[in-house]
Specification:
Strand content: 25-35%
Shape: globular
Number of helices: 7
Strand order of the largest sheet: 10-16-15-12-13
Structural class: alpha+beta
Largest sheet: 5 strands, mixed
Distance between the termini: 48 Å
Length: about 425
């Protein structure tokens, strides 16, 4: 009996230890069926934080109305979408201590035909400078009885990080940081004492990510601008005309690399713009010879069409492969872009080839994507570590391993045999 009691106590202690270890991981999301799903009816919610003073942060919210339910509450011709917005400001993800919270309602009126548009609102957070925070926003579609979540890191340790700037175009707040070449972007700074800003210009083209099993080191990004210009300010806002390519990084403090970054992308971004880009982002499933042949072709459109027709075997199958592959490229650009387009970086590469993860875990410093049944020896786990760079809060690097080689070639071969690879559906 004494031995059984000791064994039982040991098992209990081991269980408590495992639970404590799992809590330390502090993942902010539970496993979900997919990270992104272009075929779902999820609501698109975007948020921008702007520090207007040492104690207040303005938060702008954009809700795309495409998947909202509009109802006619009476006999009038008007239809209405009704939303409840709730938010909580925390010291860090998973914290139980709420620093600020509130809720409010939005009512959007539409005529008999509902036009696609963005619903924009604003609320103020009580956030003191000198700290970083974590914002949780919940959007409830009262007509549909469905909740949607949007989370945002609030960085307020100093006066020169990204959220001390606000971007506007045509007098409206921009919820994106990519624009067309020649487009005029107005940058507003909350620090009214700034009399000069430095604009560092970067025009380097980055290639696609290396395979997940590669032992070759990726190109190291060094903070070395291709050119620099300085603006002397007469007010707290100024206009920048976007370059033909690359990006600007705007700084107010030369002792730090922190600032705001704005990118030049084609008007079709996050979609694929032309045959050159189609060829480039298809590199993951092309041989070197196929890639060079397409790149050097006089008619690049005919060359990339021929590639897809060859692996598809028929026009119908080729069209389906095109739609699904470049659909994944678009989603990668939308969700994973940092200082490069999303399709070029590690998460984009894995997403394009493997598709939606079966489960996704997100912590403050890493993301883990799981493909297949987690209890199965054949399940694939990709670990992406968050990196610090002055241009983006969305930069993650894959932990590469030779273990991925067989899985990678299996997935690529599946595409090349004319099939869309959906590992999580198996």
């Amino acid at each position: 009996m004494e031995k059984i009691a000791r064994n039982t106590l040991f098992l209990l202690l081991a269980l408590i230890f495992c639970l404590c270890q799992s809590k330390k991981r502090q993942y902010t999301t539970k496993p979900t069926k997919s990270l992104v799903n272009p075929d779902s009816d999820l609501l698109e919610v975007n948020a921008v934080a702007y520090h207007t003073s040492d104690s207040v942060t303005e938060t702008y919210l954009e809700i795309k109305n495409e998947n909202l339910i509009y109802k006619r509450p009476d006999t009038t011709l008007a239809f209405y979408a009704e939303l409840k917005i709730s938010y909580k400001l925390l010291a860090e993800p998973n914290s139980r201590r709420i620093l600020d919270s509130s809720s409010f309602y939005l009512l959007d009126r539409a005529a008999e035909k509902v036009e696609v548009k963005s619903i924009v609102s604003k609320f103020n957070l009580k956030a003191r400078r000198g700290n970083n925070y974590y914002l949780e926003v919940e959007v409830l579609d009262l007509n549909k009885k469905t909740k949607y979540a949007k989370n945002l890191n609030i960085y307020k340790q100093n006066y020169f990080s990204e959220q001390n700037f606000l971007l506007t175009t045509n007098g409206e707040v921009s919820f994106k940081n990519s624009f067309l070449k020649g487009e005029v972007v107005v940058v507003k700074s909350s620090n009214t004492s700034v009399s000069q800003v430095t604009v560092d210009c970067f025009f380097k083209e980055f290639g696609p990510a290396l395979p997940p099993f590669s032992s070759k080191a990726a190109d190291e990004f060094k903070y070395k601008p291709d050119s620099v210009f300085v603006l002397t300010l007469s007010s707290s806002q100024y206009a920048l005309t976007m370059p033909d390519k690359g990006f600007y990084h705007v700084r107010t403090d030369l002792s730090s690399f922190e600032g705001i970054t704005i990118y030049t992308y084609d008007k079709t971004f996050p979609g694929v713009s032309n045959s050159d880009e189609m060829i480039n982002c298809t590199r993951y499933i092309m041989s070197k010879a196929e890639f060079e042949e397409c790149k050097g072709a006089a008619d690049k459109k005919a060359a990339i069409d021929k590639f897809w027709l060859t692996i598809g075997g028929s026009n119908e199958r080729a069209r389906e492969l095109l739609k699904r592959y470049y659909g994944r490229v678009k989603e990668a650009n939308k969700y994973f872009s940092s200082y490069t387009q999303g399709w070029k970086n590690d998460r984009g590469m894995i997403f394009i080839i493997y598709g939606h993860p079966t489960n996704n875990y997100r912590g403050s410093k890493e993301e883990i994507w799981v493909y297949g049944n987690e209890g199965s020896p054949s399940a694939q786990r990709f670990i992406f570590r968050k990196t610090q760079n002055p241009f983006s809060d969305n930069d993650y690097i894959l932990e590469r391993s030779q273990f991925y080689k067989d899985s990678w070639y299996t997935a690529v071969d599946y595409w090349r045999q004319g099939h869309v690879y959906l590992d999580n559906a198996k």
